[in-house]
Amino acid sequence: MSALTGTGTLTRFILRRDRIRMSVWTVSLVGTVAITVPTLDETFSTDAQRQARAALMDTPTGILFGGPGYGLDDYTLGAMVVNELTMSLLIATAIMSILHVVRHTRAEEESGRAELLRAAVLGSGAQMTAALVTVALLNLVIGGLTGAIMAGYGLDAADSLAYGLGLGLAGLTFGAVTAVCAQLTEHGRAASGTAFLAVGVLFTARVVGDLAERGGGPASWASPFAWVQQTRVFDDPRWWPLALYPPVVLALFGAAYALAGRRDLGAGLIPSRPGPAAAGPLLNGVFALYLRQQRGSIIAWSVATFLFAISFGTLATEVEGMVESNPDIVALLADASTEDVTAGFLGVMSGYVIMAAAAQGILSVLRARGEESAGRAELVLATAVGRIRWYGAALAVGVLSTALVVVLGGLGIGIGALSATDDASWIGTMLESALSQLPAALAFVAATALFAGAAPRLMPLVWVWLGYSVFATMLGALLGMPDRALDLSAFGMLPQPPMEDFEAAPVAIASAAVAVALVLALAGFRRRDLVTG
Amino acid sequence: MSSPVIDARGVDKYFGRFQALDGLDLTVEAGQVAGFLGPNGSGKSTTIRVLLGLLRADAGTVALLGGDPWKDAVPLHRRLAYVPGDVTLWPNLTGGQAIDLLGRLRGGLHKARKQELLSRFELDPTKKARTYSKGNRQKVALVAALASDAELLILDEPTSGLDPLMEAVFTGCVLEAKEQGRTVLLSSHILSEVEKLCDTVTIIRQGKTVESGTLEDLRHLTRSSVRATVSADPGPLAALAGVHNAEIDGDRISMDVDNDHLDTVMRAVADLGVRSLVSNPPSLEELFLRHYGDELAALNGDKGGAS
After folding, report:
1. Of A235, A281, A326, B29, which sits most exposed with the smallest number of CB within 10 A?
2. What are A90-110's pLDDT values in tens digits?
3. How big is the A-B interface in CB pairs under 8 Å?
């Protein structure tokens, strides 16, 4: 019996068990491509429209969600697909691959099902191999169909094939990263968390590299996110960047097998240690409990925002040169004159910080809702803790962690700008910029608090509002959305230094509204039944 | 007699259009161990959540330790401890940390008693809660509740995840709590447990109280099962008032007799010449099945019931 005995059976079993899940992923991703290609073709039908669109893709936002910008000079349909769709597709296949691999490796071990299977005639490497075979199959089918659809719309067949293959290989690479992460800890959640973190770092590397240099800098080349687009398909095609994927995938697989061979079934390489038998003096109340529950995620959001902010800040001077060569963009960075380009760019970056802080704030307040539906709120509220104290502590943690992310983000942009421009005044300027927008981030904390406190069923509206606000801020001006529609965005309500002057009155009004909403949320939570389950 | 520790009268509770409690009555006197019986979905947990002020009653009056559980939740909760039916804990805290945290939030915990309970329940307090089984999570909540000095313990199916050995430990703990003069509300569907521990029993069905009183009282209201072997033909016995489910096999008869007819039936049996006689008071199971027998019959698709 070899280590691979039973791999075939297990592979078929995974295909059977996940037939719906895998089909949904395939249909939705391939379907997105099938719908987007003709839509892009129709929306941008003239050369002038396409080049205007290309100018947008040459902005920091365009690069963040687009790529290194190959093909922008002659923005044909193929180039458009590659620039506009690749990142969304890669992020989706990354999420899909991470979930798939964890589901069929670590999560199986954690649940004990792996034990049942391994007790049968099954090789020790069969489960991981089956997971990897299926994740490869899934990604290559999605990539292949994508390429076929693009060729079907009349795009160059060889370029379409290279692009589809690149997508599939990139997705497989994320699966291989996950296979390594799954060896480290005992728990499926921790494994997918580690893998998401790793993929996030790789994405950031691509963004930083692409922002630093047209066509991508060294940081881009370190990331599998970049290699698909480095084939320059539909522009000046070259196949060799795709050759980077197989050795990386094989090396990661090798590492995963080597690590798996060194540990027991169910155990992690990082063993879970017993904890203290008694609570320390700090764990003495609801606020402390919340802080402790969210410690990891608050640190992760703060550090990630801080690092993102620093790396964007360092681009302050690069952007000036980039923008001077393309005056069209100046209009996009608010109504600033050319000398304000740096300020405009950094202002846009500070807007991203506020968006991140808002998302963090929503998630933080939602923890309270999670505690409630899991039944832990019941346990605590049956002790001498009142409703107001319990929910108030949750909201306090939400407000404080959001403020922390905002301050670190503003500080980070300032530090980055300082390193690029040698001008220390940026630190104060960017802190002011971020802090003057703090009420906009807190508006989402307050809205979440209000819904979770008084009307849990309406909670999804908060995400809709955040999505709309992000969309309107990033693309509203470009799409020519009317002012009235733009005013509904939380991020457009307050004047934003350094492009605009700080004004106390709107900030005070917004802060007061946030405070009122928080009080109403507490009152609402006090009056309603606890909803468990 | 002092006022009852729990006094709920005519409590209604709706979830949307679904009526979970329908004029429910529940009274528990100080120092008693009160059994609260009913199958899943009959409204036991909803009642307990109303008593804890987690849900607000739509109608009726609820008094807990002399206060209003919705308005006076915090001061009342200092005097009680609660073990939910399905305990969820914070996955990244150890059992020991969770016990201390719950103790501190209640306002105090006896350290020595906690240690003693940990060893009696054989619970390892250094393990992270995410690694605990259902039974171990229940033990965490039980230790936290029993190590407090609460005068009222509200226990919602506390033994559903415990093995028989641990059930015995639990039984011991509840009896000790009773000796200390504490009041216990024990919701359960394990009849033998209730029979062993409880002074009074309240049986609910579809949010309504259908029986309540001491076990003794309840038994008087119901039937005894009688088996007899007589010298003459036992046939006429089956026709007597108060006799049910009579089965005759030659000179032997087994029947259920309404307790208020027991006297006349026994005289009739004696007149036939008794050779052997066994009479059992109804078990709690029989009491329970009397109220749920029709549901059981519907589930089985025939006439079910206690044998």
Report:
1. A281
2. 988 998 999 999 999 988 887
3. 110
